[in-house]
Specification:
alpha/beta; Rossmann fold; eleven-stranded mixed sheet; seven-stranded parallel sheet
Length: 737
């Protein structure tokens, strides 16, 4: 497994800042750590910092010194005082901490209202990429990726001019950084409806105005001992003892201190009273209606947006809301009960999978496994969002957004055209959509169109997206597959081809190239790569598993094709090529790579030659030598073999037709290898593993595993290579990948 990388998170908590920033960064850190990432934090030791809590969760924390007495902040950003030091000093201290890591972080994550583009620019030489988490849009950023999880009126426009042109934006509550338990509970917790039986009061860890006490007094004035109330108050709150006195003697009121998550209390509650901060998304995810009070200026637009959409009832700002205001709102809701539609609106706005989406964006590589499925009716809104992405529209022939009705007609027509269209959505294994690929048939050829989700652009995902979809199409259409050309639905994605040495042209001067392979060949997973190269170079490409179905053309490559091809079929193409892992004419026949490994060889020739009527006898055009260490197992052997195969095929097409004149006849007496059978994977229990190690190297754990017999029973062996770091996990009977 390829490691997702190193992450450094710069975030603070304090009595002024609150705990929400650190809590959501911990959620992200835990998700990244589960993927195998190395995550550490840099935090300043403000009063009320959470460095100990971060360390308790297993993350290293580099602590910056507490704010100096008499610190005076600059004029910008608005929250500069929250930093506790001049930004230049913080940047210098952070840079010093990075240098002590001994490795350049792949990502610097910064979640701090007091830091802007100046700080980010100063740190940029020390890190790979910068990910900014913001809620305010009140300052300029120098970052590669920005998250704003809020639901405000101008969410899609308010960062224009405030981030670099090539910065990717993750906007809206679908990216809310919630603990995994919220996604788990989202589909389990029923909507609230009817009488209010339990209320949750929680204003977060920095309730400096004691809104908790105010809300509690409002409830107590209603004299409703039949309604239970959960009150969450930090153990460090200056009002903790006062609130304990308030609830004394009230058996229906339950006090809670520092909790790892509010999810259990939210699941029980019918109504919440709290701030309009990061907890808003947790309440929405679990369908919990809420009365909210804004505690800071940055919460006003959030509360206003949620109020306008009927997701919360905003009572006002902290200096405006009185005990009487809260009492009146509570009394009204208790009298009429909760409308189920309110709860359902909340649940539909946040699904709790934001951290999975962000984790996928941060850790995805060209080697990330991708899954392909048919588009569903439920994908309509997703595909419309991608089509109307601002960058896509800006670079399209028409900058105007596509209407929902126009898109619906187009989308529905594709879904119904089962013979002429295949529309696929490509996802990560966690179900995060990466992009869509369409195959539309024109005459006999399938034209390929694709687009990447905006957040996955510029990440090298164009090729793996197309390869995965092409394999899916190949699995569904086992006959002859003729491919026309590739085009991108969003012009920004064309840059994918530039980065992969693709010309992305179709000038009509291309050739007709065919590939023929066995249906069940392991090489099939590699073939789409070279097909896409040729398609984007303007060639027409055919892929089939049966030589009888080959159309006429210029060049045909037989790759892992086990049947003899007649002279008449060879005449359908000007040239027919085979790649064989042997020094021809030595080693003609079956499985030459496997047989040579069994012979103890670790330098294996790979030869490109012309197919002839006599098996493996044609003139040789090109050859390369593979060099192995003697430790590689079958998957790595095959991978190296196919990399060489693809390189030989590419170079032949690139040099065609001049390369034909370089062909040389095979010299010497031929030798032949026999076909290998499952019985050839037999392990002799009376021999040492060392003696049979090369046999273990070439067995296929799935198709023809190693096996032995003992006392009349047959047993199967699996062989996998493990790093030394995995040994302790193996000893504890844990899986290590």
């Amino acid at each position: 497994m390829i490691a997702p990388g190193n992450f450094l998170i710069r975030v603070d908590a304090s009595t002024s800042i609150g705990t929400g920033h650190v809590v959501r960064c911990l959620t992200l850190a835990n998700a990244l750590a589960k993927k195998g990432a190395d995550v550490s934090f840099i935090c300043r030791e403000h009063e009320g910092h959470l460095c100990d809590r971060i360390q308790e969760q297993g993350f290293a924390v580099h602590r910056l010194p507490a704010p100096a007495d008499g610190f005076r902040a600059g004029a910008t950003p608005f929250h500069a005082v929250w930093l506790g030091a001049p930004w230049q000093e913080d940047a210098e201290q952070t840079g010093a901490a990075i240098r002590t890591l001994g490795v350049k972080p792949d990502w610097l994550v910064v979640d701090h209202y007091a830091l802007d583009h100046r700080w980010e620019h100063a740190l940029r030489p020390l890190v790979g990429r910068i990910f900014a988490i913001d809620d305010l849009a009140d300052r300029i950023h120098d970052c590669d990726l920005l998250l704003d999880q809020n639901l405000v009126a101008d969410i899609y426009t308010r960062y224009i001019g405030k981030v670099p042109a090539d910065c990717s934006l993750l906007l809206g509550p679908e990216y809310a950084l919630l603990q995994p338990i919220y996604a788990e509970l989202h589909d389990r917790i029923p909507p609230r409806e009817g009488p209010i039986r339990r209320i949750l009061i929680s204003f977060g860890g920095a309730d400096s105005e004691n809104l908790t006490g105010r809300a509690l007094s409002a409830f107590l004035s209603l004299n409703r001992p039949d309604i239970d109330v959960d009150v969450v108050i930090s153990d460090n709150s200056p009002y903790a003892s006062e609130i304990r006195d308030q609830v004394a003697g009230h058996a229906n009121i339950h006090l809670h201190g520092n909790l790892p998550t509010l999810a259990p209390l939210m699941a029980k509650a019918d109504l919440a009273i709290g701030a309009a901060g990061t907890t808003s998304w947790e309440r929405l995810c679990l369908g919990l209606p809420a009365l909210v009070v804004t505690l800071a200026e940055n919460q006003r637009p959030i509360a206003d947006g949620l109020h306008r959409q009927g997701l919360v009832r905003w009572l006002g700002h902290k200096d405006e809301v009185t005990e009487q205001n809260i009492r009146q709102a509570l009394a009204g809701l208790i009298e009429v009960g909760i409308d189920e539609e309110w709860s359902l609106r909340c649940k539909s706005s946040v699904d709790g999978k934001g951290v999975d989406r962000i984790g996928a964006v941060l850790t995805i590589t060209a080697d990330t496994p991708l899954l392909v499925r048919h588009a569903r009716l439920s994908d309509e809104a997703l595909l419309l969002d991608w089509a109307n992405d601002p960058e896509t529209r800006q670079n399209s022939f028409s900058p105007d957004p596509i209407s929902a009705e126009t898109h619906r007609r187009w989308f529905h027509s594709l879904l119904r055209d089962l013979d002429g269209c295949r529309l696929y959505v490509v996802e990560t294994k966690e179900g995060i959509p990466v992009g869509q690929v369409r195959f539309e048939r024109h005459d006999q050829a399938w034209e390929i169109s694709y687009s990447l989700a905006p957040q996955f652009r510029k990440r090298g995902m164009g090729r793996p997206l197309l390869e995965a979809a092409l394999l899916k199409l190949r699995s569904e259409r086992l006959g002859v597959l003729v491919l026309g050309k590739v085009k991108s639905d969003d012009p920004p994605s064309c840059k994918v081809f530039e980065s992969l040495d693709f010309s992305a042209r179709s000038d009509g001067g291309g050739m007709r190239i065919s590939v023929c392979s066995d249906t069940d060949s392991w090489s099939n997973t590699y073939i789409p790569e070279v097909l896409l190269d040729w398609l984007t170079d303007g060639h027409e490409v055919t892929w089939t598993h049966d030589a009888d179905t080959l159309p006429e053309g210029d060049i045909c490559f037989f790759l892992s094709y086990g049947r003899i091809v007649s002279a008449d079929l060879l005449k359908r193409h000007g040239n027919n090529l085979v790649v064989h892992a042997s020094d021809l004419p030595m080693g003609r026949g079956w499985s030459p790579l496997t047989w040579q490994i069994l012979e103890g060889k670790n330098q294996i020739p790979v030869t490109l030659f012309e197919a002839a009527e006599a098996v493996d006898s044609g003139p040789i055009y090109k050859q390369v030598i593979l060099r192995f260490s003697g430790l590689e197992l079958i998957d790595e052997l095959r991978h190296t073999m196919m990399r060489a195969t693809i390189a030989l095929c590419r170079s032949f097409v690139r040099e065609y037709p001049a390369v034909i004149t370089t062909g040389t006849p095979q010299q010497g007496e031929p030798t032949f290898y026999a076909r290998r059978r499952p019985k050839d994977s037999f392990i002799d229990v009376d021999k040492l593993v060392r003696e049979q190690f090369n046999l273990l190297r070439v067995v296929d754990n799935e198709r023809y595993p190693a096996w032995f017999e003992f006392k009349g029973k047959r047993f199967i062996l699996r062989i996998e290579q493990r790093d030394e770091a995995c040994l302790p996990e193996i000893q504890k009977n844990k899986r290590c990948t």
